[in-house]
Design a protein that fits this description.
8 helices, alpha+beta, 6-stranded antiparallel β-barrel
Length: about 325
């Protein structure tokens, strides 16, 4: 976590701090609500407003913006507003926080690409530990905080810089929104260690998926099913025994693998227990096209494979640089 307490600089756009700010007389301009997938050192994160709703990034004149609230959370800073001086202050020292799961609160209501009215605020001062902050585009043009619905937004590129990270951009795919990945710079040795670890986990994940698929072939032989479950548990043990390299990118994303292994172990433990008490039909039960039998779940829901594939693809497609 200590690496997130450093100062942030890095990608195409902007972050915003969710601070309650009275509207000023600045002229309204048009921007767009534009959802992005955000990763911080491999960890999928979400920007939330004060109501704990996910909010989309704002795209304005080629730069992305997020709420100042998010910047404060990532930096481990408290956020305050002084209406007299039109100043947002990020100060103090609290545990940095990253929202890795969507809250239960209803989503912020918007349409993809929806045009909105925002207010650029060149009159607003942003202080980080009492030091005024100035924001620039990648080409060096100065840009300013934005005000939207009473919330201050900051350039994402500048937020990245504040937490000591560099940005990488991935265009939208058929399955995913555009991705901005912020990552701590790595040495060549760290980059190699990271890629080797992810490749090794991916190889084990494939072996796990192959073994899971084999459950279907043995669905009428409980002895063979038990042996197959034992083999899958053995693969998970091998993954757990792999030392995670001391690489910033893996400090959080490595937890994704750990959590996936734990989820798969829970599935296998449940399946092994019910193997003794349920019929083959119950173990492989399908209901409305969904897997509900414990062996069907074990055969089709490889958390390890999903996590390993996502991390390796993210690393390779984003193209992290040394």
């Amino acid at each position: 976590m200590k690496l997130f307490k450093r100062i942030l600089c890095g990608t195409l756009a902007a972050l915003t701090v969710a601070a309650s700010v009275p509207l000023a007389s600045a002229a309204d301009e048009t921007a767009k609500l534009y959802p992005l997938t955000l990763h911080v050192d491999g960890l999928r994160v979400y920007a939330l407003n004060e109501q704990q709703q996910e909010v989309p990034t704002i795209l304005y004149q080629g730069s992305f913006y997020l709420p100042v609230r998010t910047a404060g959370e990532w930096l481990g800073k408290n956020v305050s507003w002084d209406g007299t001086t039109q100043t947002v202050s990020l100060s103090g020292s609290v545990e940095p926080s990253f929202h890795t799961a969507l809250p239960s609160a209803p989503s912020f209501s918007y349409s993809y690409g929806e045009s909105i009215s925002i207010q650029p605020r060149p009159d607003m001062t942003i202080l980080l530990d009492s030091q005024p902050q100035t924001f620039y585009t990648a080409s060096g043009t100065q840009i300013y905080p934005l005000l939207y619905r009473g919330t201050t937004y900051l350039p994402l590129r500048s937020v990245a810089s504040l937490i000591g990270m560099q940005p990488a951009w991935r265009n939208a795919t058929a399955q995913d929104a555009p991705l901005i990945s912020l990552y701590t710079p790595m040495t060549e040795a760290q980059s190699t260690a990271c890629l080797q670890y992810l490749a090794a986990v991916s190889e084990q994940a494939k072996a796990y998926s192959d073994a899971a698929a084999g459950l279907m072939a043995e669905k009428d032989n409980k002895t063979a099913l038990k042996a197959q479950l034992d083999e899958m548990q053995h693969i998970l043990e091998q993954v757990s025994a792999m030392p995670i390299p001391d690489v910033p990118y893996l400090q959080h994303s490595g937890k994704t693998i750990t959590d996936a292994v734990a989820a798969d172990r829970a599935l296998l433990t449940d399946a092994a227990a019910k193997l003794q008490t349920q019929t083959a039909e119950e173990l492989f039960l399908l209901e409305h096209g969904q897997a509900v039998g414990v062996l069907m779940q074990a055969a089709t829901q490889s958390n390890l494979s999903t996590a390993a594939t996502a991390l390796l693809n993210d690393y390779q497609r984003v193209g992290l640089q040394t």
